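Exercise 3.2. Students should predict the tertiary structure of the chain below and write it as structure tokens, then compare their answer with the key that follows.

Predict this chain's 3D structure.
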Amino acid sequence: MPEAVKRSPAIVFLVFDYFPSRGGTTTQTRLHAIEFLRRGWDVTVLTRRVPDRLGSERLEGIQVRRIALPGRGRLAKWVDVLASWLWLLRRRRSFSAVSVIMDADLALAARAAGLGSSTVLTWVTRGDATRRLGGRIGRIRRRLLGNCKQVVLSPRMETELRELGIPDVAVIPVPVDTTRFHPPTGIERSQAVRELHLRGGATVLFVGHLQERKGVDLLIRAFGLVLDAGQDANLVLVGGPIENADHGYMELLKGIIHERELGDRVVFAGPKDDVAPYMFAADVFCLPSHREGMPNVLLEAMACGLACVAPASAGGDELLFGSVGVIPPSNSPVDLAHALIPLLADPDDRRALGTSAAARVRSDHQPDRIVDSYEALWHVGSTGLSGEQLI
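Answer key:
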């Protein structure tokens, strides 16, 4: 008999947002995809359409397919799920592995296309699994997910899924690009401070979407208390609104700044494709979110050697334990201010915390180690297998 033709294993990532969209989910998907590509996999990202982008394009060697409707409304979401199902159904024999990032309904689309046993669903935010898999509708989703494998980012998220009756859960953390995010040299820091035109005094940095879940209003109020305590500091907010409701939240933030007369001390930098220069120029990073999983942006700040402040609700308990950062009791303005004030007053403490934080990220969050763990879920060794062996 003729020898079977060998082909590369193929993986498709299903995610609602991909570049040029910004955010932790986009970053996580990109780093996974790049590492799989480096290992010889054929990699496709299936995502929603965005204005002014082609339906199919290749980014960093990754095939990106944009389908369904642009937008973030409920109709667009369900059209995307249906379109994903049809797209996968036509190509179900082409893929050895399916990786769904964040949304259980995309995993249901993969299972309905006959790819359930090849599908891994990764939950990225605490509480999402409870909302999607809890209650009567959630129980139906749990049954429909069937043999899809499920991944969480942290032990605390694992507990959440086990409490929902899902016994087999893998804990795999978030990867970080430590070539891009690293402690800056003196020259890199000086250049970043100069190019960003930051005024004198220490800089507190926030990076993320400006939406209510991120708790930026609490950080602004805390920053006012920091100034009241006599600290010479600035607050830089990198990011912008993404949902319609976020624009109202932006007005709330501006109202707080006006009320506290902080206008010359708070900078709205807007969304940025490259946030590394802001991290190189900052002194302290603060993430005040009400709800996170294992936030990419906190890990990136740690990788840059920044002293970080994040309460448990923002993932601080999972990442900053053991004298690697400061974990305030809550994200209240008073608790955030009590965490920030000593750090801003003590450069040596900031430096020690940042050094420990960068070392933790280099040790625990390298993309190759993360993808090793994902390949194990599909029973693939680190050397990779042919497509025939995987199917």
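Discussion points: Residues 347-364 form the longest helix (18 residues). Residues 382-391 have pLDDT under 50 and may be disordered.
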